[in-house]
Design brief:
Layout lengths: L4 E5 L5 E17 L14 H4 L4 H18 L11 E7 L2 H8 L2 H4 L3 E5 L9 E7 L3 E9 L3 E2 L6 E2 L4 E8 L2 E9 L7 H25 L5 E6 L7 H6 L14 E2 L2 H6 L6 E3 L2 E3 L2 E6 L11 E7 L20 E2 L2 E2 L9 E8 L3
Parallel strand pairs: 2-3, 10-11
Antiparallel strand pairs: 1-2, 2-19, 3-5, 4-5, 6-9, 7-8, 9-10, 11-15, 12-15, 13-14, 16-19, 17-18
Helix pairs in contact: 2-3
């Protein structure tokens, strides 16, 4: 595999060469198959509610998702993501169909997925290019939360933890899809705070073994970078220089608060629910191993609605009971990692 190299001039005007890889996350918006699983509540998925053309819609949905994933990171890394977390997928079968699409087949992606307890049967997973990322360990972590009114357990997505070597460097990735805002932001807030507390415990456990662990926490948080779950529980910082030892950096906070950017929209308001955060060792300026370089939102023009009441919104797959021909109601997010290449 040919890897992209970039050249960056330092303050001393010395040009250095760097290897570059992309870490990404994408909410695939109801990527369900057309088979009714009697053990799951999958009949409530948009594709299963369709009366006709399910197979055609499913194939188009797969191709749309593959097109986006294949394109993320190509402007700089000249390659699709080395690793990408995904959510809103029904099972491993849909991921097998996705990675075997002609646009992704040559990337030889592997899959890490566990069946979770979510009542709608949607899960998280990690896809990785086998030539670039070598999994060492993975585990799925149950989120125990309860409805504030009924006190009944809310069955939601597990958090996926994967450890492995990215082109020789040990990294850890937490893939998240935190509880929704169903019932309103205030009423549902405690559920996402609970998700953040579980996330923090997992990060703390990794750092207790190795204080210098390179950890990413990525996903659809259903909260913005400024909400309690991110700011008070994870204590994520928007300024790299203010991240303490064992602290967490969130490059998406400035995008949200200073630039007004978002990854999803609802009722004429943009939200930046999809985020990639990381621990301090990824911020060091010793590029002998992979370090964070840039973060972004992948939102090319073909992923926007061009007209109508939802003009400017993400061009989603399903709306008003049918398939739109679109992609997802979320834009993907990504970060570039770079490592200096010595002559």
């Amino acid at each position: 595999m040919t890897l992209a190299m970039i050249c960056i001039s330092s303050v001393w005007s010395q040009e250095k060469r760097f290897k570059i890889h992309t870490v990404a996350f994408y909410n695939l918006e109801n990527l369900f198959d057309t088979i009714n699983d009697p053990l799951k509540y999958d009949e409530a998925s948009p594709i299963m509610e369709m009366k006709a053309n399910r197979s055609e819609v499913y194939q188009k949905k797969i191709k749309n998702m593959a097109r986006v994933i294949a394109n993320i990171g190509t402007d700089m890394a000249k390659n699709s993501p080395a690793v990408i977390g995904v959510c809103e997928i029904e099972n491993r079968d849909v991921l097998e169909d996705l990675i075997n699409d002609p646009l992704l087949l040559g990337k030889d992606y592997g899959i890490i997925h566990y069946d979770g307890p979510d009542r709608r049967s949607i899960d998280v997973a990690l896809l990785y290019q086998k030539a670039l990322f070598k999994p060492i360990d993975s585990s799925s972590h149950e989120l125990l939360i309860y409805d504030d009114v009924t006190r009944k357990r809310v069955y939601t997505r597990d958090q996926l933890l994967v450890s492995g070597e990215l082109d020789g460097d040990l990294i850890h990735i937490l893939v998240n899809h935190w509880p929704s805002r169903s019932g309103g932001e205030a009423r549902s807030r405690s559920k996402r705070v609970g998700a953040a507390k579980l996330n923090k415990r997992l990060i703390d456990s990794l750092q207790s073994i190795d204080p210098y662990a390179k950890i990413f926490t990525i996903g659809d948080l259903n909260d913005d970078p400024t909400n309690e779950s991110v700011k008070k529980v994870l204590k994520a910082k928007k300024d790299k220089k203010k991240v303490p030892f064992k602290g967490i950096y969130n490059p998406y906070e400035k995008m949200f608060t200073e630039k007004g950017w978002g990854t999803t929209a609802y009722r004429d308001a943009l939200s930046l629910f999809d985020q990639i955060m990381m621990t301090k060792p990824l911020l060091n300026e010793d590029y002998s191993s992979f370090r964070f370089w840039k973060a972004g939102i992948y939102n090319p023009s073909y992923m926007f609605n061009k007209r109508g009441r939802y003009e400017g919104y993400p061009f989603r797959s399903f709306a008003d009971g049918g398939f739109t021909g679109g992609f997802s109601d979320h834009f993907p997010v990504y970060v570039y990692l770079i490592k200096e290449v010595k002559e």
